[in-house]
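User: I'm preparing a small set of examples for a lab meeting where we compare how different chains pack in three dimensions. I only have the primary sequence for this one, and I'd like the structure in token form so I can line it up with the others. Please keep the answer compact; I'll paste it straight into my notes.
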Amino acid sequence: MKKLILALGVAMFMCVLAWLASPYWMMYQLKQAYENNQPEKISAYIDYHAVKESLKPQMNARWFGADLNQGERPSWRHLVGEYIGEPITNAILDRVVTPKTMILLLQGKQFSQSLAHSQADASSTVMQANMSHTASDSAPTESSNELQYHAGYQDLNHFVIHVVHLQGADTQFIFTRDGWNWKMTDIDLGLAKVQQAS
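Assistant: Understood. Below is the structure token output for the 198-residue chain.
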């Protein structure tokens, strides 16, 4: 009986350990996917609808002048955004929220840079070149020299990958637990912090 209780205790401990370690396994899988140019595997970790919804207010604030900290500014850009901003934002996000864009953001690119990349050549060759550049350990890269990565639990059901660029960009990728699996559901581009600093 004691051996059975011990075995059950060990099994339970291992299950809890694996449950807590699951986001770090997810990070490893993401790294392998973009190093091997496997966008379909990257997509498996992204809830595109939720990510777009998290980006909408940030993009509207940036493009149409709504203040994320102090409410809306009464400007012509706000008036444009109030009437036609949502369909414009929806159309742009539908086009640019892709596995490639997520890779660029995780590499430390700002969202405007990712937009430029998505509007240029969207071929897998370009994607492969970007990923190979990031994966290289022999040559100094922007990631190794100018980026800081922090990852950890926000709470038991949310895990955050925080990419801090030494020149000011600050992006957080929030993943939400789905049982043993994780999905990217939110991206915080740090626009509120930029507005506070300015």
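A couple of notes for your slides: The longest strand covers residues 147-155. The two ends are 67 Å apart (CA to CA).

User: Perfect, thanks.
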